[in-house]
Amino acid sequence: MGSKVSGKMAAASRVVQVVRPHAPLIKFPDRKGIPRPNVQEALKVLAASLPQISPSASVSPPPRPPGPVSRLPGTPDSIDVVRDLPHKYRRRTLALDEMDYIQRGGPE
């Protein structure tokens, strides 16, 4: 009788392990068709698009957005906090394989 009970429990655990279809919550952009930009060309385009500033010209601060800026409560992180963060608490970069795996919602 003991073997019948364990057999039923094993069958029940197999039913629970079925993965139901789901909608992926994270979407990564499809970058396979987009050519990678050349850094030197990008710098040339950027330098050409910037206005020429003479050394005697005064530099004004960037314009502020209209309306109040809402901030989250609490103390903001300073550069010292971010720089001194231990390596084990830093966010690791995702490889392209990992992004593809997440994008398709699991194994193929």
UniProtKB/TrEMBL annotation:
One of its GO terms (molecular function) is oxoglutarate dehydrogenase (succinyl-transferring) activity. The keyword Ribosomal protein applies. It is found in: Mitochondrion. Its main location: mitochondrion. The keyword Ribonucleoprotein applies. GO terms for biological process: 2-oxoglutarate metabolic process. InterPro entries: Kgd4/YMR-31. Residues 53-81 are annotated as: Disordered. One of its GO terms (cellular component) is mitochondrion. Keywords: Mitochondrion, Ribonucleoprotein, Ribosomal protein. It comes from the Eukaryota. Belongs to the alpha-ketoglutarate dehydrogenase component 4 family. This is 28S ribosomal protein S36, mitochondrial. The lineage of its organism: Eukaryota, Metazoa, Chordata, Craniata, Vertebrata. The gene is kgd4.
